[in-house]
Amino acid sequence: MSGGAVAAVDLGATSGRVILGRFQGGAISMETVGRFPNTPVRTPSGLHWDLIGLHRGALDGLSRAFRSEPAIASIGVDSWAVDYALMRGDRMLGVPFHYRDERTASGVEAVHAVAPFEELYRRNGLQFLPFNTLYQLAAEGDLLGLADGLLLVPDLIGWMLTGARVAERTNASTTGLLDVRTREWDLALAERLGVPAGILPSLVDPGTELGGLLPHVAAELGGRAPVVAVGSHDTASAVVAVPMRADRAAYISCGTWGLVGVETEHPVLTDAAREANFTNEGGVDGRVRFLHNVMGLWLLSESVRAWEDESGRDIDLPDLLKQAAHAPAPDAVFDANDPVFLAPGDMPARIAAWLSERGLAVPPSRPAFARLIVESLAEAFAMAVRKASELSGVPVETIHVVGGGALNTLLCQRLADRAGLPVLAGPVEATAIGNLLVQARTAGFVSGDLEALRAVVAGAFEPLRYVPAASRVRA
Which pLDDT tens digit goes with each residue over 146-159? Predict the structure, then answer.
């Protein structure tokens, strides 16, 4: 295997980054060459993503990447799922909406009037989330009739770089318009829902070369490289980089959301899976990510934002979590999956109201509040792991936590305690690593199946191990 470098554009719900990956002898090293905020913008029409700002941040990071490594072999882009831009020719019809915008309620009602959720689950295998793409499209109104294309966010950035209009399959699987069995567009469903089939772009798999940089992009970046499709849904890329035995482990990709599940060869479409609100999303190499969405660190970050707004002072999150570790454990937890916590706003007030309505004690201090949030997340994660194992038949012996949540030592330990299973935490930059690995395999810098790619991760990143408290006592 030859060596070389590839660049990952990794867009998260709160920030973006450009990471350079170097491969030599089957080993990986990484350099972060760009970081930039991802701050939604509220306008009279609703809550939107600052797509132009994200594109600008990606270009600046890629410029630095080419200065650091002129012979970059390729570029890959991943982001969150479900959100999109409608296109007409080479124009976006407006700025993409944020999935937390309130407009989707009318879309849910309209879709379910035509295709009940039970039918949708049989067709697309997706858990009910009110912001899935098909619900958002149903809320578009007349604008949908003006469009001649639709591009999901990572594909949109890819189009800005190359001019190619495609849909990468792992992210397309989150739209609700992809047949869960054939992994092709469900054109019959799209027609019933009033989605013009002509706006759905050609599907491509991870590892597909999309084309070279547009001339003006190459001139600005000071280099040339093709863009390669990766697992463009960030969780699909993150799961590539979980150093697990897929037949014995569960994973949690923990950031703004906590994506809790197992990897399977085939979708799980039972009534029990539907009733438990588990989803079947596409993975790299045709695998299935059978998982459940838990609200994730959004609960903590929104609480910190509210406290900072209230006090006018920045809060040091690591220090707050240290204090939370010494706060008394709460007598009860709240339901981290309750939809009341989905929208932006005063999270502590909403949690306090949830507790008060049920006659439960409201934490008396911010550290106690943070402890309650962590305990509630740990319980939601543990329950989702148990359910994923039960529904899929995968005997879970270990839980892997990747993403930013791997840095939260209190969360990882309380997850181990509540699940009664060892937790392996890391790598933190799993999404970018998975993005880089798919590109590196395409370039010939590494080879093999997902297990071989995960062996590269295991050799480069040592996870932190958390043992359940009961095991420590027995020992």
Answer: 999 999 999 999 99
